[in-house]
Design goal:
Helix content: 10-25%
CATH topology of one domain: Immunoglobulin-like
Radius of gyration: 26 Å
Distance between the termini: 61 Å
Number of helices: 14
Number of strands: 46
Shape: globular
CATH class of one domain: Mainly Beta
CATH architecture of one domain: Sandwich
Largest sheet: 8 strands, antiparallel
CATH superfamily of one domain: glycosyl hydrolase (family 31)
Bound molecules: alpha-D-glucopyranose
């Protein structure tokens, strides 16, 4: 590969960093831990700090460095890195298998970039006429091997396997229906995982917030590449025994999803266009009247006075306290939307304060920058400054004092109705002055950090924040939803790949707008969507203003009964989902998992878009097409039991399952112990003092977590950890691994498939 580093000269080691010198510049390799190596060249500014990785992740791993012929070789217990002239770098696993190699040829398009900016190239006397007009700071071109499959990348649209597609990391709010050819959606999570033909796995995290491209063999099937307009070259290579280990390494770096409050896993209702307190009360009352559980109702922008954040529309919504008190009395927690855009209006205290204190982004001439969002002309808080984040966090007090259950952050790409913010709008990265080009992809991330901090300080509870835009690592602060989908069957089909890839990219707590946001939802589509989303971590039905009503009780008795059945099933499995979060806080593993995560050696599952695992024990194969009542289901290795009939199946085969409109095919793995709770209308309706274990044949072992479901007391030992084991006949033994909370009065067993 042609570049401008020149010949290798030598290396110097200090602690876990290896400075490698070439004729023209230096590159830094850091052994983060046995399976993670960072590669860093400060092309842009060495003062840039990672937004995704907040603490120094380096442990004192053993490694060696030596000159071996033409290469400098760095070896840890798990990774071998070989570095050659011109900054050609290859990564191997400990067994000597080449995992990720630099591509030795040239890219075949006209776009030809250098390790240096175009200006620098020109200064060096190169003819730059054949280059793209837009300067590309650097690119990383890697060899694409036959059999390589790609996963991760956060919320990108399309299928599970990203091979042969191209994507852009630039948080985008685009009005068109999300199709598989979309390059960018709302989030930028530049974490890519590769599963090689023989099931070796590795991951790469490109930690740069500027606009970047990831092309996975679309341009040419010989290579894949990452390229970016600007920023430092800063990527982490990670390997492990399996994809599971790679997810573990990535979340080791960027953080895991913290344990949420239990009620946030209940059913949630939202709509843009609940125009008054009466509308909200009507919806809540209908849930209770139809006996369909409901834990959360979302208040969209309608609740504000003229869409001004941190205000209340008293005209239509009455006294805020009154509405909150009434619905909370029915067990429903209100979640309020807060957008970043702050209406330009004299006398509006939030905007006045922001202007007076210099809290908003400015244009290049030093004027407070204005663009339009829902409230009309608006200012944009400069969330990169700690002072601004603290101010924003404190603003939430008006809502937390009323007992808000969570905050929904939207429009934080940032979206802007008068065209995109120019690249040179001035923002801060803490004390460093920078611009929109660098901050754009972390605007949502910084906003969510502020929201999280506000909720945490003001309530003492585990904050419930939902965001549309974010960056890698935001999972520490917020749950995400996939933005404005539509009531289309192909958007239902996208739920599984999108949520599974988000999950493997660290975002265990994610969901889609159930029923679809835009367009009108049919009764059948809603039934199937609720079924498919039953294990979606965020279980929220949301719709756009003006679309047909899609609350689950708005339909015929048959449809309402089906919707109730699945929402009830969700409540039944709540302790299992909660356990997955509890474990995920340590392992980084998501709730919704593609089969390929646990069965990487099975070629049948590499492109399986229509089934997923909830944890390791439950396989869900929802119907995703209109009118379809039979479903081909692939069962991976092992023995599986039909949840509905108890019928036993050996895995590694396709089976045909009858799936009329009221059946979502589900299979439980042999040797499972799955905790279930009594169905309630909302979390907190009754104390959960009984647990019923769903047990399948085969010896099983399972750890179950129990706490108050709300705050951080569990961090101080106020929780129980039960170790359940079953023998082949389903006889249960319980051992308390930790006891610090009131224990269940009853633990019972229900056998399936015996
Ligand atoms: C955006 C959000 C959507 C919300 C609407 C109004 O389109 O994605 O969820 O309902 O704004 O606030």
């Amino acid at each position: 590969m042609e570049n401008n580093f020149g010949k290798l000269l030598g290396y110097e080691v200090s602690d876990c960093e290896i400075k490698v010198s070439f004729e023209k510049r230096e590159a830094y390799f850091t052994v983060v831990r046995d399976e993670i190596v960072r590669v860093y060249v400060p092309f842009f500014d060495e003062n840039v700090k990672s937004k995704a990785i907040e603490n120094d992740p380096c442990v004192d791993a053993d490694f060696t460095v030596e000159q071996d012929g033409a290469a400098i070789v760095i070896s840890t217990e798990k990774v071998v890195v070989k570095i050659y002239d011109d900054f050609v770098v290859d990564f191997y696993n400990a067994e000597g298998k080449l995992l990720m190699a630099d591509y030795r040829g040239e890219r075949t398009t006209k776009e030809k970039v250098s390790w240096m900016s175009l200006e620098m190239l020109e200064a060096e006397g190169h003819d730059i006429s054949g280059y793209l007009e837009k300067p590309c700071r650097y690119q990383l071109v890697k060899k694409l091997d036959e059999g390589d499959d790609f996963y991760g990348l956060g919320d990108k649209s399309g299928f599970l396997n990203k091979k042969h597609y191209e994507y852009e990391n630039w948080n985008s709010d685009l009005p068109q229906a999300h199709n598989e050819d979309f390059k960018a959606l709302y989030k930028s999570i530049p974490f890519l995982m590769c599963l090689k033909k023989d099931a070796e796995a590795y991951g790469v995290f490109f930690d740069n917030t500027f606009r970047s491209n990831i092309n996975l063999g679309k341009e040419n099937t010989e290579y894949f590449f990452y390229s970016t307009e600007e920023g430092n070259l800063d990527y982490y290579f990670m390997t492990g025994e399996s994809l599971v280990d790679v997810v573990g390494s990535y979340t080791y770096l960027t953080g895991t999803t913290p344990l949420p409050q239990l009620f946030t896993l209940g059913y949630q209702q939202s709509r843009w266009g609940y125009e008054s307190a009466d509308d909200i009360n009507f919806v809540v009352d209908n849930y209770r009247a139809s006996n369909i559980p409901l834990d959360v109702i979302h208040l969209d922008i309608d609740y504000m006075d003229n869409f001004k954040v941190f205000t209340w529309n008293e005209k239509n919504y009455g006294k805020p306290g009154e509405l909150f008190d009434r619905i909370k009395g029915l067990g429903v927690k209100p979640v309020c939307i807060i957008d970043p855009g702050t209406k330009v209006e004299k006398g509006y205290s939030i905007d006045d304060e922001g202007v007076a204190n210099d809290y908003f982004a400015k244009d290049k001439d030093g004027e407070v920058y204005v663009n339009a969002v829902w409230p009309g002309d608006s200012h944009f808080p400069d969330f990169g400054k700690e002072e601004v984040r603290n101010w924003w966090a404190n603003n939430h007090k008006v809502l937390t004092d009323l007992g808000v259950g969570g905050i929904w952050n939207d429009m934080n790409e940032p979206a802007s109705f008068h065209g995109e913010l120019p690249a040179d709008v001035v923002f801060h990265d803490e004390d460093r002055v920078t611009n929109h080009a660098e901050i754009h992809n972390v605007y949502g991330h910084n906003m969510c950090r502020a929201t999280f901090q506000g909720l945490k300080d003001q309530t003492g509870k585990r904050p419930f924040v939902i965001t549309r835009a974010c960056y890698a690592g935001s999972q520490k602060y917020t749950t995400v939803w996939t933005g404005d989908n539509q009531s289309l069957w192909h958007h239902l089909q996208m739920v599984i790949p999108q949520l599974c890839n988000l999950g493997m990219s660290g975002f265990a707590f994610c969901g889609t707008d159930i029923g679809g946001f835009g367009a009108d939802c049919t009764p059948e589509l809603l039934c199937r969507w609720i079924q498919a989303a039953m294990f979606s971590p965020l279980f929220r039905n949301h719709a756009a203003k003006g679309t047909k009503d899609q609350e689950p009780w708005r339909f015929s008795k048959e449809v309402v009964d089906i919707n109730r059945k699945y929402i009830e099933l969700r409540y039944k499995f709540l302790p299992y989902i909660y356990d997955l979060f509890y474990k995920g806080e340590t392992t980084g593993l998501p709730v919704m998992r593609p089969l390929v995560l646990h069965y990487p050696n099975d070629p049948e599952v590499r492109n399986l878009n229509s089934e997923f695992l909830a944890g390791e024990n439950i396989l869900v194969a929802p119907v995703l097409e209109q009118g379809v009542t039979k479903r081909m289901v692939y069962l991976p290795d092992g023995t599986w039991y039909d949840y509905w009939t108890g019928e036993k199946f050996e895995g590694k085969q396709y089976i045909l399952k009858d799936a009329p409109i009221d059946v979502c095919p589900m299979y439980i793995k042999a040797g499972s112990i799955i905790p279930t709770y009594e169905v309630v209308q909302y979390v907190g309706e009754k104390a959960y003092n009984k647990v019923e274990l769903l047990v399948t044949p085969g010896e099983g072992s399972y750890e179950h977590f129990q706490d108050n479901g709300e705050d951080y007391a569990y961090k101080n030992g106020i929780y129980n950890l039960y170790q359940f084991t079953t023998d082949a006949n389903g006889n249960l033994t319980t051992e308390m691994k930790h006891q610090g909370y009131s224990v269940y009065e009853e633990v019972s067993v229900v056998k399936l498939g015996f």
